Amino acid sequence: MSSFLTHLKIIRPDDWHLHLRDGEQLKDVLLYTARQFARAVIMPNLRVPVVTTEMAQAYYTRIISALPEVLQSQFQPLMTLYLTDNTQPSEIVRAKNSGIVQAVKLYPAGATTHSDAGVTNISKCFKTLAEMEKQDIPLLVHGEVTDPNIDVFDREKMFIERTLCMLTQHFPQLRIVFEHITTRDAVEFVKQSSEKIAATITAHHLLLNRNALFQGGIRPHHYCLPILKRETHRRALLQAAVSGNAKFFLGTDSAPHALVNKEQSCGCAGIFTAHAAMELYATAFEQVDALDKLEGFASFFGADFYELPRNTDTITLRRKNWMVPERYDFAGEALIPLYADAELSWKVE
Ligand code: NCD
Ligand code: ZN
Hints:
This protein is α/β, with parallel strands linked by helices. The protein has 12 helices and 13 strands.
């Protein structure tokens, strides 16, 4: 079917997991997202993490001010709080009443970029999680154990066993988004859980397997967390994304880092995909002839899970070959996008 499609018109999508950074970096990456998506869930892992509603409000204002005037009323950042051992239940009430904070993010301490302030032991957060359950604020989880004795490719599976199962039992009414899932184990877990549990899937985990990390040499721009997995897992993710199951929806996890911080003896985790987010998802969906499933995944299921209205305007993806630039500007540094200097065959108008 899709080989005959010259264009695809869908309701405007939302990005349910995005890193925008701050300051000049924010200004340089924000437009890529704002011109495709109506809304995005903004991750709170800034250098100084966004731990209070007040900080989320200030960050929200900085994001809106970084937009050109025409887009200020059109793009909506959905803010999150960074959960720490010390987040109080009263902060959850403030977040709920703010009207701009949509969710709270759990980073196990040390799991990824800027996660040092993360949770050291989830049992320290039980009162706060109980308040989230009561206020019906979703918990977004970076689902990897940080135990250095666990193989890096097994950390997601182990997180399900050690933490996620327990959380869903303790807090059966808490809505949880298992973020950027990377394994068949995560797909199965989400499928068999209650309707309170959903998952986001990135474009890069749909398009690449772990071989991409070592294509003719080590590839720092394919390094992200959770790390790319085996082909069997990529296929399971793609099947879940195109299945029409509303528990799986779009979250790019676009995570820009300057080239100088990626090409290092110890380089940062994170892949920048916002420059071509919908084009990359369309490429992945087309591989399994499922472009007709893109709209639900990108534009409906996330809004439904977050209990927000679906968007009403549309975007059009057109079949058109174009070259991804080899780099973008990032506060005076270079930013290497996914598929830099390679050709894509879809373009958002
Ligand atoms: C993210 C970042 O750079 O902020 N990196 C990544 O590899 N995904 C953090 C995160 O979401 O884990
Ligand atoms: Zn992320």
